[in-house]
Amino acid sequence: MSDAELDPSELGTQDYWQRAYIKEIRNFEEHGDTGDVWFGEDSADRVINWICNCGVERDTPVIDLGCGNGYTLSELAREGFTNLLGVDYCPEAITLAEKVTQTEFPHIQYKVFDILEDSITQLGKFGIVHDKGTYDAIALNPDDPKTCRQKYIQQVHNMLDTDGLFIITSCNWTEEELIKHFSEKLRLKRALPTPQFRFGGKVGSVVSSVVFEKISY
Questions:
Q1: What's the longest Cα–Cα distance across the chain?
Q2: Which of 68, 102, 118, 204 is most enclosed, with most CB atoms within 10 A?
Q3: DSSP 19-62
Q4: What is the pLDDT of residue 4?
Q5: Cβ(128)–Cβ(60) under 8 Å?
Q6: Which of 213, 207, 189 has its CA nearest to residue 37?
Q7: From CA 45, how far away is CA 75, in angstroms rounded?
Q8: What's the CA gap between 7 and 145, in Å, rounded?
């Protein structure tokens, strides 16, 4: 397991995501295409199914960090969750999510929010904090990714309720690396099974999905 940072990428820049969501808004308006689900629907559905069966109440406050087109929140709403908030630092992503989900699930709330710059006091506390790809994008930031990751981890810790759960899915970090990154602030609850592949005699996963509990001091 390496302590090295990821190579920087345009996927770590706001400009990239703004261009991508402008295109997805146009595709939705012209063709009804709701856009891509980051890491695929199977990956998202495994996390959604776990949340639905982990014993939390359906009125538990849930926040989706980097909500994209709102897929995760709309599926949770379909399962009866009522206190849902999606945030993204791209206004274009919020526009897309509102267009895609608000007719069927008007109770889902959306807000433009930059987890590296904005105060969480405007959001409140959450029983579930969900991330699928946002931590990855932050780690690809060309400008001081280590500091950005540390700020993100602190912000996640601060927005969790005392018994809150943080659920993260990553395609760039292994389960062991995620546990190491978050170990000072969060305690491992469980790793969710993900599809595995074998290459060169070694077994690996395409993505890692990990559930953490808040450590209270």
A1: 51
A2: 68
A3: HHHHHHHHHHHHH------TT-HHHHHHHHHHHHTS---TTS-E
A4: 85
A5: yes
A6: 207
A7: 8
A8: 10
Tell me the C-alpha distance between 53 and 46, whole Å.
Answer: 11
By DSSP bridging, strand 62-65 and strand 84-88 are: parallel
Confidence of residue 118 (pLDDT cuts 50, 70, 90): very high
* Chain segment 44-100, per-residue pLDDT in tens: 999 999 999 999 999 999 999 999 999 999 999 999 999 999 999 999 999 999 999
Could you tell me whether strands 186-192 and 208-214 are parallel, antiparallel, or unpaired per DSSP bridges? Answer: antiparallel
Of all residues in the chain, what percent are helix, strand and coil, respectively (each to 5)? 40, 25, 35
Instruction: Provide CB contacts within 8 A for 71, sequence distance 6+.
Output: 34, 37, 41, 44
CA angle 68, 187, 150 (to 5 degrees): 55
10-214 adopts what CATH topology? Rossmann fold (3.40.50)
Residue 196 clears pLDDT 70, i.e. is over it: no
List the domain boundaries for the chain: 10-214
Can you list the pairs that 193-197 forms with residues at least 24 positions away whose Cβ atoms lie under 8 Å? 193/46, 194/43, 194/46, 195/42
Indicate yes or no: pTM above 0.90.
yes
